[in-house]
């Protein structure tokens, strides 16, 4: 028996290296579990699926497992890179639903394989999609993906908001709140002011976090954004960075440290607001008498679980069977941010909180991520409509979330369905509960969502 045992040293590992990628794409079981919520978590047939891509395109290649087969075929030369192949690989929101579903039983990393497959298509000259390339150029030229002037980045900031240039706490606003969902930036700043919590913003020294680039597989351009942001944050001696955007938060928390270490703490606003309430710095005295449901952003939930370093060996039992010693940690989404937003909602008086069927690590994506909103708007909208229908089925009047990008797409879904549901970011709900003088303007914004 011992003749068949030998040990391969893999060294410290975080994300997939080339060797792991080549091995992993051969080990998909073709079981299709990645299309579904794990069986014990399913509450109804209507909301049993987890992959927006297979739901929309209904062919195996559009699932997590299907894309692994494409990766293998490409690697073995059985499939040539093409426009058609590229479209299939990019018609994926990189929501990570397949990854948590697969790892319920397995040790595969479908999301990481999809990310690496996109990097390979970029290196072969096929990716990203043309509209994604346009926003990448805009990030390079204007520091935001929306083709907006960089000097307008802090136009959202009202004159009466107090910022403190000497604070060691930075509010990193992000592109979407700066240019498209300004109400989230304003609500966040007003809440911090109400708590007398000093913070600074970087104004013209804040640049796109790079998430929209990273998700398309253009790693090299992403690294520029990492350096640009970390150079300035390091120089300013920042100790804590606060985010109201799930995408920026995830990118700083999970992806930046893989490229460059930093010494500050990262917090999502839902974590900070809870802390401020628990230490009596914020008092939520106003009633907010609505039935509310909550959408878990993929980047705040399952995808914000950090990588754990693993320094182990692979023990080969037989040519095709091996085990890791010690067991390699699985990134299953268990340690995403799920409790903070829920605790926050439950602290607001008058709210009747109702959960959707697919929540936490098994939440259904809003449909916007992975560059899909730019490249395949119909797919993004269709997924948003599906998620809005799930929210409507709870009987809620308001759907809330904690990400400006989810906010934009879910609002589009509400409008496309002519739904009675209204969307408010969680910071807007907190601001209403504070009895802010701007409560009436928020309430009227609900009418036009
Ligand atoms: S990716 Fe995982 S869940 Fe999907 S078919 Fe392969 S082994 Fe099964
Ligand atoms: S990342 Fe999301 S959209 Fe892409 S294959 Fe996995 S579950 Fe489907």
Main traits of this protein?
449 residues; alpha/beta; four-stranded parallel β-sheet; three-stranded antiparallel β-sheet; 10 strands; 43% helix; globular; disordered N terminus; binds iron/sulfur cluster
Put the structure in a nutshell.
The chain has helices spanning about 20-25, 50-55, 65-75, 85-90, 95-100, 110-125, 130-140, 175-180, 180-195, 210-215, 220-235, 245-260, 270-280, 340-345, 370-375, 375-390, 405-415, 425-435, 440-449; strands at about 5-15, 170, 240-245, 265-270, 290-295, 310-320, 320-325, 350-355, 400, 420-425. It has about 450 residues and is α/β, with parallel strands linked by helices. One iron/sulfur cluster binds near residues 51, 93, 96, 97 and 98.
Account of the 3D structure:
With 449 residues, the protein is α/β, with parallel strands linked by helices. It has a domain at 2-129 and 312-325. 48% of the residues are buried. The chain has helices spanning 18-24, 52-57, 64-76, 83-90, 97-102, 110-123, 130-142, 175-179, 182-194, 211-214, 219-235, 246-259, 269-278, 339-347, 372-375, 377-392, 404-417, 426-434, 439-448; strands at residues 6-13, 169-172, 240-243, 265-268, 291-294, 310-318, 321-325, 352-353, 398-401, 422-425. Helix 3 crosses helix 6 (110-123) and helix 13 crosses helix 14. The structure holds iron/sulfur cluster (2 copies). Residues 50-53, 63-64, 67, 92-98, 110-111 line the site of one iron/sulfur cluster.
